[in-house]
Each structure stands twice: as structure tokens, then as C-alpha cells.
Design brief:
The chain is mainly alpha-helical and 225 residues long. It is built from eleven helices and no strands. It starts with 5 loop residues before the first helix and ends with a helix.
């Protein structure tokens, strides 16, 4: 028998903790999604197929605000592009090929990336990625169903304050990324553009405009370098 690996045990413990905390939040998505007009089945399929919380909240948030499905899908797609960048970083780190690499692509989210990129070995990176990714996936879908069924039974989730889940989700994703002055400046510019667009554009477009600010800053910064 091999020697126990205390570092691996710690990674598994931390990854499960992240998976449980994130997965439980799926109940809010389920309730908000049903309130936006989607059925329980549509809500569950969205979690199974899309499986990226920010994009899912963006889609149902636009629909709940009266926006068009096209605007909601475009907003969700814009937010989901960050997963492509995660994949570029993870591919050489995890070193999977073929079918395993294709399967792992579905688990590329904020949490699984964060729990793998800081590891010193490929084995530990894979452990953090798989334990986090699968625990979030299973619990997120389970609690999406619970939230959708519960939301349908309880009625309008705004009565219980669950409508704030959309804004809370975006704030929770943004907050850890505001450590640098440059990032805070980009965030403030994006907020200003979004607020300015609210009275002039359909629902969902202000989010796209705000995302365009970040893309523009990134392109200009790269050009300067």
C-alpha cells in the first residue's frame, strides 16, 4: 500500500466544501428561473446543459426583466466566454487527452478552476478539479430541481427576497476580482456604462455594454504591450 497523502486529503476536503457551498446555491437559481417563466423541466435542462451559474442567472434575469430570449442568450454567452480562457489554462495543467479531455470540458467552471490551478503536481490538480467539478455539478442540479419545484409551489420568490439572488450572484463573482486598482477602475467604468444604457436600451443590453467595456480595455492593454 502507498503512503497516505495528507495534501491530497486536504484538497479533497476543501474541494468538497466548495462543492457543497456552491451546489446549495442552485436552489435560488431554480426558484428564480421558474419565476422568470421557465418550466421546471426547462430549468433543470438548463442546469444540466449550460452548467455555469453566472450565465444561467444572466439568462433568467433578462427574461424576468422582460427582455428577449436572444438578448438573454447573448448575455449568457458573453459571460460564458471566460470558461474558454479557463480551459486554455487547464488543458496543459491537467494533461488529459481524447474522451477524458472532452468530458472534463463540461466541468470547467470558476470553482473547479480555482481548486486546481494552484496545485504543484498534475495529480493534485486533477484531484481538485474532479472533486470540485463533480460535487458542484451533482449538487447544483439536485438543488436546482428542489428550488424549481419549491418555487412553483410557493409562488413568486420575490415574496421571500429570492429575486435578489441574481444581483447577489454577480456581486459574489465580481468581489474577489477587485483586488487590483486597475480591475476596480474597469468595474467602475462598466457600471457607469450599464447605468447610462438602462433608460436607453432594452433589458439585457446594458449587461452586454458593460461586458464590452472589459473587452475593450483588454484589447487596448494587449495592443500597448
Amino acid at each position: 500500500m502507498g503512503q497516505p497523502d495528507p495534501e491530497r486529503a486536504g484538497i479533497v476536503r476543501d474541494s468538497l466544501g466548495v462543492g457543497i457551498a456552491t451546489g446549495l446555491y442552485g436552489v435560488s437559481f431554480g426558484a428564480v428561473s421558474v419565476a422568470s417563466g421557465l418550466s421546471v423541466a426547462q430549468t433543470c435542462v438548463l442546469s444540466l446543459v449550460m452548467f455555469t451559474g453566472a450565465s444561467q442567472f444572466a439568462l433568467v434575469g433578462v427574461l424576468a426583466g422582460g427582455g428577449s430570449p436572444v438578448s438573454g442568450a447573448a448575455t449568457a454567452l458573453l459571460l460564458g466566454t471566460r470558461n474558454t480562457l479557463y480551459g486554455l489554462r487547464l488543458a496543459p495543467l491537467l494533461a488529459w487527452t481524447g474522451v477524458r479531455r472532452l468530458g472534463a470540458a463540461h466541468l470547467v467552471i470558476d470553482e473547479s478552476t480555482a481548486m486546481s490551478v494552484t496545485r504543484g503536481t498534475t495529480a493534485h490538480a486533477r484531484t481538485g478539479f474532479l472533486v470540485t467539478g463533480w460535487s458542484v455539478f451533482l449538487l447544483w442540479n439536485l438543488f436546482t430541481l428542489a428550488g424549481a419545484v419549491g418555487g412553483q409551489a410557493l409562488g413568486d420568490p420575490r415574496t421571500y427576497g429570492l429575486d435578489a439572488a441574481v444581483g447577489g450572484a454577480f456581486l459574489a463573482l465580481l468581489w474577489p476580482r477587485l483586488g487590483e486598482p486597475r480591475t476596480r477602475l474597469v468595474a467602475l467604468l462598466a457600471v457607469a456604462v450599464a447605468l447610462g444604457a438602462v433608460p436607453l436600451t432594452p433589458v439585457g443590453v446594458p449587461v452586454l455594454a458593460a461586458g464590452g467595456v472589459a473587452l475593450l480595455v483588454g484589447v487596448l492593454s494587449r495592443s500597448e504591450r
